[in-house]
Amino acid sequence: MSRNDTRDGSRSRPRARMDAADGGRRSGSPDRPRAARGEEGRDVRASRGKDAARGQTTARPYVMAAARIEQVRQVLGEALQWKYPADAVLSHWFRAHANAGMRDRGEIAEAVFDVLRHLRRYRQFAEIGAGSGTRRLAVLGLASVWPRETLDTGLDEHERAWLDHVLSLSAAGLPRAVRHSVPDWLDERLAALPDAESLLQALNTPAPLDLRINPLKAERDALLAAWADGPEARWAARPTPYSPWGIRIQGRPPVNRWGAFERGEIEVQDEGSQLLAALVAPRRGEMVIDYCAGAGGKTLLLGALMRSTGRLYAFDVSAARLARAKPRFARSGLSNIVPVAIAERNDQRVKRLRGKAHRVLVDAPCSGLGTLRRNPDLKWRQHPESLAQLRQTQAAILRDAAACVMPGGRLVYASCSILPEENELQVEAFLAGHPEFSLLDAGAILADRDIRVSLDGPYLRLRPDVHGTDGFFAAVMERAKGTPE
Ligand SMILES: C[S@@+](CC[C@H](N)C(=O)[O-])C[C@H]1O[C@@H](n2cnc3c(N)ncnc32)[C@H](O)[C@@H]1O
Protein backbone atom coordinates (compact mmCIF):
# COMPACT_ATOMS: atom_id res chain seq x y z
CA MET A 1 0.00 0.00 0.00
CA SER A 2 1.51 3.27 -0.98
CA ARG A 3 1.40 5.82 1.78
CA ASN A 4 -0.34 8.32 -0.44
CA ASP A 5 -3.07 6.12 -1.82
CA THR A 6 -6.40 5.57 -0.17
CA ARG A 7 -8.95 3.00 -1.12
CA ASP A 8 -11.14 5.47 -2.83
CA GLY A 9 -8.35 6.54 -5.09
CA SER A 10 -7.94 9.97 -3.58
CA ARG A 11 -4.64 11.23 -2.30
CA SER A 12 -3.90 11.64 1.37
CA ARG A 13 -7.08 12.16 3.35
CA PRO A 14 -10.01 10.32 1.80
CA ARG A 15 -12.65 12.49 0.26
CA ALA A 16 -15.14 9.92 -0.77
CA ARG A 17 -16.38 6.47 -0.50
CA MET A 18 -16.01 5.65 -4.15
CA ASP A 19 -16.92 2.01 -4.19
CA ALA A 20 -18.81 1.32 -1.07
CA ALA A 21 -21.96 0.16 -2.65
CA ASP A 22 -21.41 -3.54 -3.05
CA GLY A 23 -21.36 -5.84 -0.17
CA GLY A 24 -17.98 -6.17 -0.70
CA ARG A 25 -16.68 -3.51 -1.32
CA ARG A 26 -14.83 -4.08 -1.04
CA SER A 27 -16.30 -5.96 -0.77
CA GLY A 28 -16.05 -10.96 -6.19
CA SER A 29 -14.89 -7.88 -5.55
CA PRO A 30 -16.11 -8.07 -2.18
CA ASP A 31 -16.45 -5.02 -0.08
CA ARG A 32 -13.54 -5.79 2.06
CA PRO A 33 -10.51 -7.87 1.20
CA ARG A 34 -11.07 -11.51 1.88
CA ALA A 35 -8.44 -11.62 4.54
CA ALA A 36 -9.83 -8.61 6.31
CA ARG A 37 -13.26 -10.14 6.40
CA GLY A 38 -11.81 -13.31 7.79
CA GLU A 39 -13.38 -15.13 4.89
CA GLU A 40 -10.59 -17.59 4.67
CA GLY A 41 -11.29 -18.92 8.08
CA ARG A 42 -14.21 -20.41 9.84
CA ASP A 43 -17.04 -18.18 10.81
CA VAL A 44 -15.76 -16.83 14.07
CA ARG A 45 -19.14 -15.92 15.49
CA ALA A 46 -20.74 -19.19 14.48
CA SER A 47 -17.88 -21.10 15.99
CA ARG A 48 -18.00 -19.07 19.18
CA GLY A 49 -21.71 -19.78 19.40
CA LYS A 50 -21.10 -23.48 19.10
CA ASP A 51 -18.50 -23.37 21.84
CA ALA A 52 -20.88 -21.48 24.05
CA ALA A 53 -23.69 -23.89 23.29
CA ARG A 54 -21.48 -26.76 24.37
CA GLY A 55 -20.60 -24.84 27.50
CA GLN A 56 -16.94 -24.92 26.50
CA THR A 57 -14.42 -22.18 26.32
CA THR A 58 -11.71 -22.15 23.74
CA ALA A 59 -8.66 -23.17 25.72
CA ARG A 60 -5.85 -20.93 24.54
CA PRO A 61 -2.69 -20.53 26.55
CA TYR A 62 -1.85 -17.11 28.00
CA VAL A 63 0.75 -16.44 25.36
CA MET A 64 -1.83 -16.83 22.63
CA ALA A 65 -4.34 -14.38 24.12
CA ALA A 66 -1.59 -11.89 24.95
CA ALA A 67 -0.20 -12.12 21.42
CA ARG A 68 -3.65 -11.60 19.91
CA ILE A 69 -4.28 -8.49 22.02
CA GLU A 70 -0.96 -7.11 20.83
CA GLN A 71 -1.79 -7.89 17.19
CA VAL A 72 -5.14 -6.10 17.42
CA ARG A 73 -3.45 -3.19 19.18
CA GLN A 74 -0.92 -2.91 16.36
CA VAL A 75 -3.57 -2.88 13.65
CA LEU A 76 -5.66 -0.36 15.58
CA GLY A 77 -2.60 1.83 16.05
CA GLU A 78 -2.42 2.16 12.27
CA ALA A 79 -6.14 2.22 11.48
CA LEU A 80 -6.92 4.94 14.01
CA GLN A 81 -4.62 7.33 12.21
CA TRP A 82 -7.28 7.38 9.46
CA LYS A 83 -4.70 7.58 6.70
CA TYR A 84 -6.12 4.51 4.98
CA PRO A 85 -9.38 2.60 5.00
CA ALA A 86 -9.45 -0.05 7.71
CA ASP A 87 -9.65 -2.92 5.25
CA ALA A 88 -6.51 -1.65 3.49
CA VAL A 89 -4.72 -1.42 6.84
CA LEU A 90 -5.72 -5.00 7.64
CA SER A 91 -4.66 -6.31 4.24
CA HIS A 92 -1.34 -4.55 4.61
CA TRP A 93 -0.80 -6.00 8.09
CA PHE A 94 -1.72 -9.49 6.93
CA ARG A 95 0.72 -9.25 4.02
CA ALA A 96 3.45 -8.22 6.42
CA HIS A 97 2.52 -11.08 8.78
CA ALA A 98 2.13 -13.91 6.31
CA ASN A 99 2.40 -16.45 9.12
CA ALA A 100 -0.96 -15.32 10.52
CA GLY A 101 -3.37 -18.18 9.95
CA MET A 102 -6.92 -18.03 8.73
CA ARG A 103 -8.42 -18.02 12.18
CA ASP A 104 -5.99 -15.35 13.35
CA ARG A 105 -7.03 -13.11 10.50
CA GLY A 106 -10.70 -13.61 11.14
CA GLU A 107 -10.39 -12.79 14.82
CA ILE A 108 -8.16 -9.77 14.31
CA ALA A 109 -10.43 -8.34 11.62
CA GLU A 110 -13.52 -8.91 13.70
CA ALA A 111 -12.05 -7.24 16.78
CA VAL A 112 -10.76 -4.26 14.79
CA PHE A 113 -14.10 -3.70 13.08
CA ASP A 114 -15.91 -3.98 16.40
CA VAL A 115 -13.73 -1.20 17.82
CA LEU A 116 -14.32 1.00 14.77
CA ARG A 117 -18.08 0.46 15.11
CA HIS A 118 -18.19 1.39 18.81
CA LEU A 119 -15.17 3.67 18.97
CA ARG A 120 -16.68 6.68 20.70
CA ARG A 121 -18.25 4.63 23.48
CA TYR A 122 -15.16 2.42 23.83
CA ARG A 123 -12.94 5.49 24.06
CA GLN A 124 -14.93 6.66 27.05
CA PHE A 125 -14.39 3.27 28.64
CA ALA A 126 -10.72 3.28 27.73
CA GLU A 127 -10.21 6.61 29.44
CA ILE A 128 -10.85 4.92 32.75
CA GLY A 129 -7.81 2.88 33.72
CA ALA A 130 -4.08 3.02 33.26
CA GLY A 131 -1.64 2.13 30.49
CA SER A 132 -2.08 2.18 26.73
CA GLY A 133 -5.53 3.35 25.61
CA THR A 134 -5.13 1.52 22.30
CA ARG A 135 -4.47 -1.73 24.17
CA ARG A 136 -7.69 -1.21 26.13
CA LEU A 137 -9.56 -0.65 22.87
CA ALA A 138 -8.07 -3.90 21.57
CA VAL A 139 -9.26 -5.71 24.68
CA LEU A 140 -12.79 -4.33 24.21
CA GLY A 141 -12.77 -5.42 20.58
CA LEU A 142 -11.64 -8.92 21.49
CA ALA A 143 -14.31 -9.07 24.20
CA SER A 144 -16.81 -9.14 21.32
CA VAL A 145 -14.99 -12.01 19.64
CA TRP A 146 -13.82 -14.31 22.41
CA PRO A 147 -15.42 -15.82 25.47
CA ARG A 148 -14.41 -13.86 28.54
CA GLU A 149 -12.45 -16.78 29.98
CA THR A 150 -10.18 -16.83 26.95
CA LEU A 151 -9.62 -13.10 27.00
CA ASP A 152 -8.82 -13.12 30.70
CA THR A 153 -5.81 -15.36 30.10
CA GLY A 154 -4.14 -12.43 28.33
CA LEU A 155 -4.98 -9.78 30.97
CA ASP A 156 -3.41 -8.86 34.27
CA GLU A 157 -5.55 -8.50 37.34
CA HIS A 158 -5.99 -4.70 36.96
CA GLU A 159 -7.15 -5.11 33.41
CA ARG A 160 -9.58 -7.82 34.44
CA ALA A 161 -11.04 -5.54 37.10
CA TRP A 162 -11.26 -2.67 34.60
CA LEU A 163 -13.03 -4.91 32.08
CA ASP A 164 -15.47 -6.16 34.73
CA HIS A 165 -16.25 -2.55 35.54
CA VAL A 166 -16.75 -1.19 32.02
CA LEU A 167 -18.77 -4.20 30.93
CA SER A 168 -21.12 -3.59 33.86
CA LEU A 169 -21.79 0.02 32.79
CA SER A 170 -25.08 0.79 31.14
CA ALA A 171 -25.03 2.81 27.92
CA ALA A 172 -28.61 3.95 28.47
CA GLY A 173 -27.73 7.28 30.10
CA LEU A 174 -25.12 8.28 27.52
CA PRO A 175 -25.86 10.93 24.87
CA ARG A 176 -27.08 9.31 21.66
CA ALA A 177 -23.95 10.18 19.68
CA VAL A 178 -21.80 8.41 22.29
CA ARG A 179 -24.17 5.51 22.75
CA HIS A 180 -24.18 4.80 19.02
CA SER A 181 -20.63 5.98 18.47
CA VAL A 182 -21.02 8.58 15.76
CA PRO A 183 -19.37 12.00 15.44
CA ASP A 184 -21.58 14.94 16.47
CA TRP A 185 -21.90 16.31 12.92
CA LEU A 186 -23.28 12.96 11.72
CA ASP A 187 -25.54 12.53 14.71
CA GLU A 188 -27.10 15.91 13.96
CA ARG A 189 -27.76 14.95 10.35
CA LEU A 190 -29.15 11.52 11.17
CA ALA A 191 -31.37 12.99 13.90
CA ALA A 192 -33.31 14.74 11.14
CA LEU A 193 -34.23 11.37 9.54
CA PRO A 194 -37.24 9.34 10.65
CA ASP A 195 -36.53 6.70 13.35
CA ALA A 196 -32.95 7.85 13.75
CA GLU A 197 -32.38 5.61 16.77
CA SER A 198 -33.29 2.43 14.94
CA LEU A 199 -31.23 3.49 11.91
CA LEU A 200 -28.17 4.14 14.08
CA GLN A 201 -28.55 0.80 15.77
CA ALA A 202 -28.84 -1.05 12.45
CA LEU A 203 -25.82 0.77 11.00
CA ASN A 204 -23.78 -0.53 13.94
CA THR A 205 -24.78 -4.15 13.36
CA PRO A 206 -22.53 -6.26 11.10
CA ALA A 207 -24.17 -7.04 7.76
CA PRO A 208 -24.87 -10.54 6.44
CA LEU A 209 -23.18 -11.54 3.21
CA ASP A 210 -25.36 -11.09 0.13
CA LEU A 211 -24.66 -12.90 -3.12
CA ARG A 212 -26.24 -12.46 -6.51
CA ILE A 213 -26.73 -15.10 -9.14
CA ASN A 214 -25.73 -14.30 -12.69
CA PRO A 215 -29.06 -14.72 -14.48
CA LEU A 216 -27.20 -15.62 -17.69
CA LYS A 217 -25.59 -18.64 -16.07
CA ALA A 218 -27.59 -19.74 -13.06
CA GLU A 219 -31.02 -20.16 -11.64
CA ARG A 220 -31.45 -19.23 -7.97
CA ASP A 221 -33.68 -22.10 -6.84
CA ALA A 222 -31.50 -24.70 -8.54
CA LEU A 223 -28.36 -23.26 -6.94
CA LEU A 224 -29.94 -23.16 -3.49
CA ALA A 225 -31.12 -26.76 -3.88
CA ALA A 226 -27.62 -27.87 -4.88
CA TRP A 227 -26.07 -26.03 -1.92
CA ALA A 228 -28.56 -27.52 0.52
CA ASP A 229 -27.05 -30.93 -0.30
CA GLY A 230 -23.42 -29.84 -0.39
CA PRO A 231 -20.72 -28.45 1.91
CA GLU A 232 -22.32 -25.00 1.45
CA ALA A 233 -25.31 -26.14 3.55
CA ARG A 234 -23.67 -24.90 6.77
CA TRP A 235 -23.96 -21.30 5.62
CA ALA A 236 -27.77 -21.44 5.62
CA ALA A 237 -28.19 -19.78 2.22
CA ARG A 238 -31.65 -18.40 1.57
CA PRO A 239 -33.29 -16.09 -0.96
CA THR A 240 -33.13 -12.36 -0.19
CA PRO A 241 -36.56 -10.84 0.45
CA TYR A 242 -36.72 -8.42 -2.49
CA SER A 243 -34.22 -9.18 -5.21
CA PRO A 244 -35.10 -12.13 -7.46
CA TRP A 245 -31.37 -12.75 -7.90
CA GLY A 246 -30.22 -12.42 -4.29
CA ILE A 247 -28.99 -15.04 -1.83
CA ARG A 248 -28.22 -14.19 1.79
CA ILE A 249 -25.83 -16.29 3.80
CA GLN A 250 -24.78 -16.25 7.40
CA GLY A 251 -21.11 -15.98 8.23
CA ARG A 252 -18.14 -15.32 6.01
CA PRO A 253 -17.34 -18.38 3.90
CA PRO A 254 -14.59 -18.22 1.29
CA VAL A 255 -17.13 -17.63 -1.47
CA ASN A 256 -14.52 -16.75 -4.04
CA ARG A 257 -13.20 -20.30 -3.85
CA TRP A 258 -16.59 -21.83 -4.48
CA GLY A 259 -17.12 -23.50 -7.86
CA ALA A 260 -20.21 -21.35 -8.54
CA PHE A 261 -18.09 -18.20 -8.10
CA GLU A 262 -15.27 -19.46 -10.30
CA ARG A 263 -17.78 -20.37 -13.02
CA GLY A 264 -19.24 -16.86 -12.92
CA GLU A 265 -22.59 -18.04 -11.57
CA ILE A 266 -22.48 -15.86 -8.46
CA GLU A 267 -21.04 -12.54 -7.34
CA VAL A 268 -20.92 -10.79 -3.98
CA GLN A 269 -23.41 -7.92 -4.04
CA ASP A 270 -25.61 -6.31 -1.44
CA GLU A 271 -29.31 -6.72 -2.17
CA GLY A 272 -29.73 -2.94 -2.35
CA SER A 273 -27.23 -2.78 -5.21
CA GLN A 274 -29.16 -5.49 -7.02
CA LEU A 275 -32.37 -3.47 -6.74
CA LEU A 276 -30.60 -0.50 -8.22
CA ALA A 277 -29.83 -2.43 -11.41
CA ALA A 278 -33.48 -3.52 -11.52
CA LEU A 279 -34.46 0.14 -11.34
CA VAL A 280 -32.34 1.00 -14.36
CA ALA A 281 -34.35 -1.72 -16.13
CA PRO A 282 -32.23 -1.90 -19.28
CA ARG A 283 -33.63 -3.80 -22.23
CA ARG A 284 -32.15 -6.03 -24.89
CA GLY A 285 -30.33 -4.21 -27.65
CA GLU A 286 -30.23 -0.82 -25.90
CA MET A 287 -27.34 1.54 -25.45
CA VAL A 288 -26.70 1.91 -21.73
CA ILE A 289 -24.03 3.84 -19.81
CA ASP A 290 -22.89 2.91 -16.32
CA TYR A 291 -21.27 6.30 -15.78
CA CYS A 292 -19.41 5.51 -12.54
CA ALA A 293 -18.82 1.81 -13.06
CA GLY A 294 -15.92 1.38 -10.64
CA ALA A 295 -15.11 -2.30 -10.19
CA GLY A 296 -18.23 -3.19 -12.17
CA GLY A 297 -20.62 -4.38 -9.45
CA LYS A 298 -23.72 -2.91 -11.09
CA THR A 299 -22.41 -3.20 -14.65
CA LEU A 300 -22.46 -6.99 -14.35
CA LEU A 301 -26.14 -7.19 -13.50
CA LEU A 302 -27.06 -4.54 -16.08
CA GLY A 303 -25.25 -6.54 -18.76
CA ALA A 304 -27.01 -9.74 -17.75
CA LEU A 305 -30.42 -7.98 -17.76
CA MET A 306 -29.62 -6.90 -21.34
CA ARG A 307 -28.95 -10.60 -22.06
CA SER A 308 -25.48 -9.63 -23.25
CA THR A 309 -26.94 -7.71 -26.21
CA GLY A 310 -26.73 -4.02 -27.18
CA ARG A 311 -23.88 -1.92 -25.83
CA LEU A 312 -23.09 -1.24 -22.20
CA TYR A 313 -20.43 1.41 -21.61
CA ALA A 314 -18.66 1.09 -18.27
CA PHE A 315 -17.20 4.56 -17.62
CA ASP A 316 -15.01 5.59 -14.73
CA VAL A 317 -12.29 8.12 -14.13
CA SER A 318 -10.25 5.43 -12.43
CA ALA A 319 -8.52 3.11 -14.89
CA ALA A 320 -7.34 1.05 -11.89
CA ARG A 321 -10.89 0.33 -10.79
CA LEU A 322 -11.96 -0.59 -14.30
CA ALA A 323 -8.96 -2.93 -14.48
CA ARG A 324 -10.24 -4.65 -11.33
CA ALA A 325 -13.60 -5.12 -13.03
CA LYS A 326 -12.10 -6.95 -16.03
CA PRO A 327 -11.74 -10.43 -14.45
CA ARG A 328 -15.31 -10.11 -13.21
CA PHE A 329 -16.52 -9.24 -16.70
CA ALA A 330 -14.59 -12.24 -18.07
CA ARG A 331 -16.09 -14.62 -15.48
CA SER A 332 -19.59 -13.38 -16.16
CA GLY A 333 -19.55 -14.41 -19.83
CA LEU A 334 -20.89 -10.99 -20.91
CA SER A 335 -19.80 -9.71 -24.29
CA ASN A 336 -21.66 -6.38 -24.43
CA ILE A 337 -19.50 -4.37 -22.00
CA VAL A 338 -17.19 -1.61 -23.23
CA PRO A 339 -15.00 -0.29 -20.39
CA VAL A 340 -13.75 3.28 -20.94
CA ALA A 341 -11.53 5.28 -18.59
CA ILE A 342 -12.81 8.84 -19.01
CA ALA A 343 -11.46 12.23 -18.02
CA GLU A 344 -13.11 13.99 -15.10
CA ARG A 345 -14.52 16.76 -17.30
CA ASN A 346 -14.92 17.43 -21.03
CA ASP A 347 -14.14 13.92 -22.17
CA GLN A 348 -14.45 13.66 -25.96
CA ARG A 349 -15.78 10.08 -25.86
CA VAL A 350 -18.51 11.19 -23.47
CA LYS A 351 -19.34 14.12 -25.73
CA ARG A 352 -19.72 11.81 -28.73
CA LEU A 353 -22.48 9.97 -26.85
CA ARG A 354 -24.57 13.12 -26.27
CA GLY A 355 -28.27 12.33 -26.50
CA LYS A 356 -27.61 8.72 -27.56
CA ALA A 357 -28.15 6.48 -24.53
CA HIS A 358 -31.42 4.80 -23.62
CA ARG A 359 -30.37 4.55 -19.97
CA VAL A 360 -27.64 6.20 -17.94
CA LEU A 361 -26.81 5.13 -14.40
CA VAL A 362 -24.89 7.50 -12.15
CA ASP A 363 -23.77 5.48 -9.13
CA ALA A 364 -22.16 8.57 -7.70
CA PRO A 365 -19.03 8.80 -5.57
CA CYS A 366 -20.49 9.45 -2.13
CA SER A 367 -19.80 9.40 1.58
CA GLY A 368 -20.75 5.71 1.73
CA LEU A 369 -22.50 6.33 5.03
CA GLY A 370 -25.23 3.84 4.08
CA THR A 371 -22.62 1.08 4.24
CA LEU A 372 -21.44 1.62 7.82
CA ARG A 373 -22.41 -1.97 8.65
CA ARG A 374 -19.51 -3.05 6.43
CA ASN A 375 -17.28 0.03 6.60
CA PRO A 376 -17.59 1.47 10.08
CA ASP A 377 -14.42 3.52 9.66
CA LEU A 378 -16.18 5.77 7.15
CA LYS A 379 -17.99 7.64 9.89
CA TRP A 380 -14.61 8.70 11.29
CA ARG A 381 -12.98 9.30 7.93
CA GLN A 382 -15.68 11.55 6.52
CA HIS A 383 -16.33 15.08 7.74
CA PRO A 384 -18.53 18.03 6.72
CA GLU A 385 -15.84 19.52 4.46
CA SER A 386 -15.39 16.27 2.54
CA LEU A 387 -19.16 16.10 2.12
CA ALA A 388 -19.28 19.59 0.66
CA GLN A 389 -16.62 18.60 -1.87
CA LEU A 390 -18.50 15.42 -2.73
CA ARG A 391 -21.71 17.31 -3.31
CA GLN A 392 -20.02 19.44 -5.94
CA THR A 393 -18.56 16.38 -7.66
CA GLN A 394 -21.94 14.61 -7.63
CA ALA A 395 -23.71 17.60 -9.17
CA ALA A 396 -21.08 17.92 -11.92
CA ILE A 397 -21.21 14.21 -12.79
CA LEU A 398 -25.01 14.28 -12.87
CA ARG A 399 -24.98 17.21 -15.31
CA ASP A 400 -22.43 15.56 -17.63
CA ALA A 401 -24.12 12.16 -17.51
CA ALA A 402 -27.56 13.66 -18.17
CA ALA A 403 -26.33 15.06 -21.48
CA CYS A 404 -25.86 11.48 -22.74
CA VAL A 405 -29.53 10.55 -22.23
CA MET A 406 -31.60 10.41 -25.44
CA PRO A 407 -35.02 12.06 -25.58
CA GLY A 408 -37.41 9.59 -23.99
CA GLY A 409 -34.49 7.89 -22.22
CA ARG A 410 -33.85 7.48 -18.50
CA LEU A 411 -31.30 8.76 -16.03
CA VAL A 412 -30.87 7.00 -12.68
CA TYR A 413 -28.98 8.84 -9.94
CA ALA A 414 -27.93 6.65 -7.02
CA SER A 415 -25.75 6.72 -3.94
CA CYS A 416 -24.98 4.51 -0.97
CA SER A 417 -25.46 7.46 1.33
CA ILE A 418 -28.38 8.09 3.66
CA LEU A 419 -27.91 11.85 3.79
CA PRO A 420 -30.48 14.02 1.95
CA GLU A 421 -27.74 16.43 0.86
CA GLU A 422 -26.19 13.70 -1.29
CA ASN A 423 -29.57 12.36 -2.40
CA GLU A 424 -32.93 14.12 -2.59
CA LEU A 425 -31.36 17.59 -2.50
CA GLN A 426 -29.04 16.72 -5.37
CA VAL A 427 -31.92 15.44 -7.47
CA GLU A 428 -34.14 18.42 -6.67
CA ALA A 429 -31.39 20.85 -7.63
CA PHE A 430 -30.76 18.96 -10.86
CA LEU A 431 -34.45 18.89 -11.81
CA ALA A 432 -34.78 22.60 -11.06
CA GLY A 433 -32.10 23.31 -13.65
CA HIS A 434 -33.19 20.66 -16.17
CA PRO A 435 -36.93 20.97 -16.82
CA GLU A 436 -36.63 18.46 -19.68
CA PHE A 437 -36.27 15.74 -17.04
CA SER A 438 -39.10 14.54 -14.81
CA LEU A 439 -39.13 12.19 -11.85
CA LEU A 440 -40.63 8.69 -12.21
CA ASP A 441 -41.94 6.50 -9.43
CA ALA A 442 -39.24 4.01 -8.39
CA GLY A 443 -41.67 1.70 -6.60
CA ALA A 444 -43.81 1.36 -9.75
CA ILE A 445 -40.75 0.50 -11.89
CA LEU A 446 -39.72 -2.21 -9.44
CA ALA A 447 -43.29 -3.49 -9.22
CA ASP A 448 -43.18 -4.02 -13.03
CA ARG A 449 -40.54 -6.63 -12.25
CA ASP A 450 -42.62 -8.06 -9.42
CA ILE A 451 -40.28 -6.53 -6.86
CA ARG A 452 -42.41 -5.06 -4.09
CA VAL A 453 -40.58 -2.70 -1.75
CA SER A 454 -42.50 -0.46 0.59
CA LEU A 455 -41.37 3.05 -0.31
CA ASP A 456 -42.43 6.41 0.92
CA GLY A 457 -42.54 8.69 -2.15
CA PRO A 458 -41.04 8.45 -5.64
CA TYR A 459 -37.48 7.62 -4.57
CA LEU A 460 -35.86 4.30 -3.76
CA ARG A 461 -34.71 4.78 -0.17
CA LEU A 462 -33.36 1.64 1.44
CA ARG A 463 -32.34 1.36 5.07
CA PRO A 464 -30.74 -1.47 7.01
CA ASP A 465 -33.31 -1.23 9.81
CA VAL A 466 -36.30 -1.29 7.44
CA HIS A 467 -35.16 -3.35 4.45
CA GLY A 468 -32.17 -5.28 5.79
CA THR A 469 -29.96 -3.85 3.03
CA ASP A 470 -27.25 -1.24 3.15
CA GLY A 471 -28.53 2.32 2.99
CA PHE A 472 -29.17 3.19 -0.65
CA PHE A 473 -30.85 6.00 -2.53
CA ALA A 474 -31.95 6.18 -6.15
CA ALA A 475 -34.05 8.48 -8.29
CA VAL A 476 -35.26 7.66 -11.80
CA MET A 477 -35.70 10.58 -14.19
CA GLU A 478 -37.00 10.53 -17.73
CA ARG A 479 -36.02 12.94 -20.46
CA ALA A 480 -39.03 14.31 -22.34
CA LYS A 481 -39.33 13.15 -25.95
CA GLY A 482 -38.50 15.75 -28.56
CA THR A 483 -36.21 17.81 -26.33
CA PRO A 484 -33.05 19.14 -28.00
CA GLU A 485 -29.72 17.49 -27.11
C1 LIG B 1 -19.80 4.39 -5.76
S1 LIG B 1 -18.45 4.13 -6.74
C2 LIG B 1 -19.07 3.12 -8.03
C3 LIG B 1 -19.30 1.69 -7.65
C4 LIG B 1 -19.67 0.83 -8.82
N1 LIG B 1 -20.79 1.38 -9.56
C5 LIG B 1 -20.00 -0.57 -8.39
O1 LIG B 1 -21.18 -0.96 -8.38
O2 LIG B 1 -19.06 -1.32 -8.08
C6 LIG B 1 -18.21 5.66 -7.56
C7 LIG B 1 -17.23 5.65 -8.70
O3 LIG B 1 -17.26 6.93 -9.31
C8 LIG B 1 -16.01 7.13 -9.92
N2 LIG B 1 -15.91 8.57 -10.27
C9 LIG B 1 -15.50 9.61 -9.53
N3 LIG B 1 -15.56 10.75 -10.24
C10 LIG B 1 -16.03 10.42 -11.46
C11 LIG B 1 -16.33 11.17 -12.66
N4 LIG B 1 -16.15 12.48 -12.73
N5 LIG B 1 -16.79 10.50 -13.74
C12 LIG B 1 -16.98 9.15 -13.69
N6 LIG B 1 -16.72 8.39 -12.59
C13 LIG B 1 -16.25 9.02 -11.50
C14 LIG B 1 -15.04 6.62 -8.87
O4 LIG B 1 -13.79 6.32 -9.43
C15 LIG B 1 -15.79 5.40 -8.33
O5 LIG B 1 -15.33 4.22 -8.96
TrEMBL record:
Residues 1-53 have a biased composition (Basic and acidic residues). PROSITE patterns: SAM_MT_RSMB_NOP. S-adenosyl-L-methionine binds at D316, D363. GO terms for molecular function: methyltransferase activity. Belongs to the class I-like SAM-binding methyltransferase superfamily. RsmB/NOP family. This is RsmB/NOP family class I SAM-dependent RNA methyltransferase. Keywords: Methyltransferase, RNA-binding, S-adenosyl-L-methionine, Transferase.
